[in-house]
Each structure stands twice: as C-alpha cells, then as structure tokens.
C-alpha cells in the first residue's frame, strides 16, 4: 500500500501542470487557467517570441497570442510541443504554413482564431486541419473570411464536435465544406452574409448534431432537404434572417424533436402555410412574430392557435 501511495505521488508530480521558469518565457508570461498552463504573448513579432516557444519544448503548455505581428507562421513552429490549446486574437498573420500546426497532431484539442484572418492579407489557400486528429473545438470568429472553401475541413478531422464561425463576413460556403465532420455536435455560423443553404455542406446523416445557429444572415429560403438526416437536432436558431414562411415540407421532418426554435427578426407571413404547426406540440421555446401580410401581423408565433387560421 505504501508503495502504491509513493508511486501515485511521484506520478502526480511528474505530470503536474506548472509554469516554466520566467527566463524561458521572455517576452511572454505564464498563468494557469482551468487546468491548463497558458503561455501568453502580447504585442510581439514572430522572431521576438520564437525563443519562448522553442525554450518551452518539453513543458505541457498552451499558447495565447494577442496583438502579435506574426507574418508567415512556419508549419513546424510548434513542433515538439504537446499543446492542447492555441489561440490567436487580433494578430496579423499572412499564412499558417503549408501544414498548419504540424507536430500537434496528437495533442491539439482547441484552436481559437479571433479577429486575425483578413482575406486581403492572410493566405488561406492551403489551410486544412484534417491532420489534427485530437481537435474537438474550432473557433474562428470575427475575422474577414468571405468564402469558406471546401478545403478547410476536407478529410476532417473527424474528432471535431464544435465549430464556431460567427461574424466572419462569410458570403459563400463550399458545397461540401463540412461534410467530413461526421461527429459534429454544435455548429455556429451566425452574423455572416450567407444567403443560400445547401444540405450537402454537412454529412448526411449528421448523427450527433443537436444545435445549428445561423442567426443574423441573409437567408431567404430553405431547400426542402435542409433538415434531412438530423436524428437528434434540438435547437435551431435562424433569427434575424429574411425567412417568410415555415413550410411543412422543410420543417416537418424534425419539428416533433425540436426543443427550441428562434425566428425573431424574420417576416414570417402567418397564413395557411404555417397552420400545420399548430396541430402539433410546439417547441418549448418558439420565438418570433408574424410579419406583414395579414391581420395577424405583430402576433407572437407561440401565441397562435388553429382557430386563428379560420
């Protein structure tokens, strides 16, 4: 028993998460956050912070870069590390290399890129994440992307469960942009300029997807097969778009399983085309109002009854 206690003590010490010595980190700093040791670098160039990255090889650290001018980041910049998280915020990056984050294939779990990608500056032609086999969470938010091509997630990684692409000025999405993300659970594409939705973007079926958030876009219509193959979909947020109806041939396939539907900010015409909804149980949350078109204008969707359509 004593041997086991001593062994566990040694093991806990060996895998203890602690900051490396400060002389290895300059010009960066270090703090512990939610069980992760984070090396934070702010306002530095790639050459200035490179020693901090190289000197911490062998330490279990993640990296947050804020307002750094990084230019072309070599593919192997993090080679030798076992980082679980990498974050860029308000940085200047001209490319992430031919094989982004090479060397972190079996450790990187979360990648955050905030206000960093600029389509006029950042070369994204070769940006692909399929080799990051442990990546579960990807957030690229409030960048200037424009076109989300098929190549970003071509081939995976299948490990991804949550993708956040909010606020990226996305105008077009590749026909198969997310089709390799077979274990996706949550998708956020709000606050973009998306007009058209294609079912081919995601795998069919998408067995684990329970949340789709696409608020504040320019979506006018949903194809008939929009909700095909989502056996556990629970939450749909299409608020602040340009939808005018909730047709049964689109929504009827998932309506009975939905718990929350957000449609506020759309001009839904409350006519016979949505009457079918009120012969069924409404979702627990059903937000939105009737738009122009008849005397039901201004009524809350959740307040309507079958007799309102007589």
UniProtKB/TrEMBL annotation:
Superkingdom of source: Eukaryota
The entry's keywords: Leucine-rich repeat, Repeat, Signal
InterPro entries according to UniProt: Leu-rich_rpt, Leu-rich_rpt_typical-subtyp, LRR_dom_sf, SLRP
Endpoints of the signal sequence: 1-16
Matches recorded under SMART domains: LRR_TYP (SM00369)
PANTHER family listed in its UniProt record: AGAP008170-PA, INSULIN-LIKE GROWTH FACTOR-BINDING PROTEIN COMPLEX ACID LABILE SUBUNIT
Protein's UniProt name: Chondroadherin-like protein
Organism from which the protein derives: Parasteatoda tepidariorum (Common house spider)
């Amino acid at each position: 028993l004593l041997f086991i206690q001593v062994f566990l003590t040694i093991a806990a010490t060996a895998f203890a998460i602690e900051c490396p010595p400060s002389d290895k980190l300059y010009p960066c700093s270090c703090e512990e956050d939610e069980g992760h040791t984070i090396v934070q670098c702010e306002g530095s160039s790639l050459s200035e912070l490179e020693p901090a990255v190289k000197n911490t090889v062998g330490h279990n650290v993640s990296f947050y870069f804020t307002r750094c001018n990084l230019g072309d980041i070599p593919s192997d910049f993090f080679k030798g590390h076992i980082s679980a998280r990498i974050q860029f915020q308000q940085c200047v990056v001209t490319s992430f290399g031919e094989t982004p984050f090479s060397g972190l294939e079996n450790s990187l779990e979360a990648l955050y890129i905030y206000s960093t990608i600029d389509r006029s500056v950042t070369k994204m032609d070769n940006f692909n994440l399929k080799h990051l086999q442990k990546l579960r969470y990807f957030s690229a938010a409030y960048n200037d992307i424009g076109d989300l091509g098929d190549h970003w997630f071509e081939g995976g990684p299948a490990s991804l469960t949550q993708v956040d692409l909010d606020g990226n000025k996305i105008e077009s999405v590749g026909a198969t942009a997310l089709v390799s993300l077979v274990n996706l659970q949550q998708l956020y594409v709000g606050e973009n300029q998306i007009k058209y939705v294609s079912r081919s973007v995601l795998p069919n079926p998408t067995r684990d997807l329970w949340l789709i958030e696409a608020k504040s876009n320019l979506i006018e219509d949903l194809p008939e097969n929009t909700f095909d193959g989502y056996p556990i979909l629970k939450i749909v947020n299409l608020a602040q778009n340009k939808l005018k109806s909730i047709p049964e041939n689109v929504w009827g396939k998932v309506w009975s399983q939905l718990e929350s539907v957000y449609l506020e900010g759309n001009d839904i015409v409350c006519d016979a085309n949505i009457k079918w909804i009120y012969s069924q149980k409404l979702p627990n949350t059903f937000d939105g109002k009737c738009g122009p078109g008849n005397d039901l204008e201004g009524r809350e969707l959740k307040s309507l009854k079958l007799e309102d359509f007589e």
